[in-house]
Design brief:
The chain is an alpha/beta fold and about 450 residues long. The protein has three domains: about 5-130, Rossmann fold, CATH 3.40.50; about 145-305, P-loop containing nucleotide triphosphate hydrolases (Rossmann fold, 3-Layer(aba) Sandwich), CATH 3.40.50; about 310-450, Helicase, Ruva Protein, domain 3 (Orthogonal Bundle), CATH 1.10.8. Helices cover about 50% and strands about 15% of the residues. The strands form four sheets. A five-stranded parallel sheet has the order 2-1-3-4-5, with helices on both faces. Strands 7-8-11-6-12 form a five-stranded parallel sheet. The chain has a two-stranded antiparallel ribbon with strand order 9-10. Strand 4, helix 4 and strand 5 (about 100) form a beta-alpha-beta unit. The relative contact order is 0.07.
C-alpha cells in the first residue's frame, strides 16, 4: 500500500494527523522539514503529501514546486495557520490539490485525502492498463512449436525467476515476455519494455537507472530510470546483447543486489523487479568475442525460452493471417486457397512481424473481399515468371544466381533483397535501414549504386 506523507515542523500536528489517517487504515510517513520530506519521496512510493506552508530550512511553497517538478503525479494538500487568499490561490496555481487552514477540520482533511487518493489510484490504474495491455497480435497457433512455448510461458509465470528469450527478429519475443508478466502475480504492476538497441550508448545508464539534476549537461531535473519505474513489476530488456560492457556490468550488479544509484547520485535505491531479457544474437558467439559478459548470461539464463521462426511452424501461417485480417480489415477480406498456398511457400525472413505487415498492406491495396495469389506475390516482392506456379519465383531466382559469377550473383541478390525490404517499409529509407540492420546513409549509397527507384 502506497503512503501519505505529512510534512510539518510541529510534532503535535504531525502526530495528530498521522493518528487520524492511521485510524482510517492509511499508511503514514512523516517529516519535520522540506529537505527531509523530499528525501522520503526519493526513498518511498507516496500518493499524497500533506504539506505545511511555514517550514524551517525550505519554505512549503518551494517544497511544493520541487514536488511538482520531480513527482508531478503526487497530489499535494497544502495546510497553513497563517493563510491568505493570495497564498491559497498561489498554491493551487502551482499544482496543489487543495488548501486547508489550521486549525484543521478532521472531516475536511479526510475528504481531501480521500479525493486526492482516489485520483492517484485512478492515474496509476490508467498507467497500468496502458503498460500491460498487449499489442493486438497475440501469440497464436496450434503447431507443436508454439504449443511448447505456451506451456513454458505458463510454467515460467508461476515463479519470479529471470527469463532469457532468444529468437530471430519478429518472432514475438516481447509478446512472450508480456504473456509471462500477465500470467504472474505481478500482473497488476508495471510491465516496462526497454529496447536497448534503440538507446544511444551515452544515455543507456540514465535510461535504465535514472539521473540526478545536474549529473550531465542536459539533466535539468531528477528522473527515475526504467528499473525504478518497474518496481514490483517486470522489466523487459530487449536486445540486451547491444548494451555496452559498462551498462552490462551495472545491470549485473542490479540483478544481484536489486539496488542501484541514479547517475550522479549517492543514495542507494532498492527495487523489486523481475527481469526478462531477449536477444536475436548468438550469445555464445558474443561471449567468445568478448562482447557479452558470461556472468551476466548465467544470471539471465535461469529459464531459457527460444522463439521459433515462422518458417518452422508453417501450419500457423493461415490462422495468424486470418487473425490479422480480423484486426486490420473493415471490409471482411479473406484469403483464397491459392493465396494461402503462396503465403506458406514464402520463407518469411521477418517472421510474424513481417506477416502482419504484409496483411496490413494487402488490406490497403486490395479493394475486393477476396485476396488472391497475385496480390500476395506483389506485396511479397516476388517476380512471377510466365509458366511458373505461384510461389516458385524465389526458387527460380536462386537457380539464376547459381549460374552467375560470384560478384554478379552478390550484386543481383543484394539489389533484389534491398528492393524487397524497401517495399516492405513503404520506401521509407530510415525504416528499411532499421529493419535490415544498416545505417540509412549506407542504404542511400546502395540505392544509388543499384539505381533503385521508388515503386519498383
Amino acid at each position: 500500500m502506497d503512503a501519505i506523507l505529512v510534512i510539518d515542523d510541529e510534532p503535535g500536528i504531525r502526530n495528530t494527523v498521522r493518528d487520524i489517517l492511521e485510524d482510517e487504515k492509511y499508511r503514514v510517513l512523516t517529516a519535520e522539514d522540506g529537505p527531509s520530506g523530499l528525501q522520503v519521496l526519493i526513498d518511498e512510493t507516496v500518493d499524497v503529501v500533506i504539506l505545511d506552508v511555514w517550514l524551517p530550512r525550505m519554505g512549503g511553497i518551494d517544497v511544493l514546486k520541487a514536488i511538482k517538478e520531480q513527482w508531478p503525479d503526487i497530489e499535494t494538500i497544502v495546510i497553513s495557520g497563517h493563510a491568505s487568499i493570495d497564498m491559497a490561490v498561489n498554491a493551487v496555481k502551482l499544482g496543489a490539490f487543495d488548501f486547508i487552514e489550521k486549525p484543521l477540520s478532521i472531516d475536511r482533511l479526510l475528504t481531501a485525502v480521500r479525493n486526492a487518493k482516489a485520483i492517484a489510484d485512478l492515474r496509476r490504474e490508467n498507467i497500468r492498463l496502458k503498460q500491460v495491455t498487449p499489442p493486438p497480435n497475440q501469440l497464436t497457433g496450434t503447431s507443436p512449436a508454439i504449443l511448447a512455448i505456451l506451456k513454458l510461458i505458463d510454467q515460467a509465470a508461476t515463479s519470479h525467476a529471470r527469463v532469457l528469450i532468444t529468437g530471430e527478429n519478429g518472432t514475438g519475443k516481447e509478446l512472450a515476455a508480456r504473456s509471462i508478466h500477465e500470467r504472474s502475480d505481478r500482473a497488476n504492476s508495471p510491465f516496462v519494455a526497454v529496447n536497448c538497441a534503440a538507446i544511444p550508448e551515452n544515455l543507456i545508464e540514465s535510461e535504465l537507472f535514472g539521473h540526478e539534476k545536474g549529473s550531465f549537461t542536459d539533466a535539468s531535473a531528477r528522473r527515475k530510470g526504467k528499473f525504478e519505474v518497474a518496481h514490483r513489476g517486470t522489466i523487459f530488456l530487449d536486445e540486451i546483447a547491444d548494451m555496452s560492457p559498462q551498462a552490462q556490468a551495472k545491470v549485473l550488479r542490479v540483478i544481484q543486489d536489486m539496488r542501484f544509484e541514479r547517475l550522479g547520485g549517492e543514495q542507494a535505491i532498492d527495487v523489486d523487479v523481475r527481469v526478462i531479457a531477449a536477444t536475436n544474437k548468438d550469445l555464445a558467439a558474443e561471449i567468445a568475442a568478448g562482447r557479452f559478459r558470461e556472468d551476466l548470461f548465467f544470471r539471465l539464463n535461469v529459464i531459457p525460452l527460444h522463439m521459433p521462426a515462422l518458417r518452422d511452424r508453417l501450419e500457423d501461417i493461415e490462422p495468424l493471417a486470418a487473425r490479422f485480417l480480423d484486426e486490420l480489415s473493415a471490409k471482411h477480406h479473406y484469403f483464397s486457397g491459392e493465396a494461402c498456398q503462396t503465403l506458406r511457400q514464402y520463407p518469411w525472413p521477418g517472421n510474424v512481424r513481417e506477416l502482419r505487415n504484409v496483411v496490413e498492406r494487402l488490406v490497403i491495396m486490395v479493394d475486393q473481399a477476396e485476396i488472391g495469389p497475385t496480390a500476395v506475390q506483389q506485396v511479397l516482392g516476388q517476380e512471377p515468371i510466365p509458366g511458373l506456379n505461384p510461389g516458385q519465383a524465389v526458387d527460380t531466382l536462386l537457380c539464376q544466381l547459381m549460374e552467375m559469377r560470384l560478384s554478379d550473383a552478390k550484386d543481383r541478390f543484394e539489389r533484389h533483397y534491398l528492393v524487397h525490404n524497401l517495399r516492405r517499409a513503404g520506401y521509407n529509407i530510415s525504416r528499411a535501414a532499421e529493419m535490415i540492420g544498416m545505417y540509412a546513409s549506407n542504404l542511400h549509397a546502395k540505392i544509388k549504386k543499384y539505381q533503385i527507384e521508388a515503386g519498383e
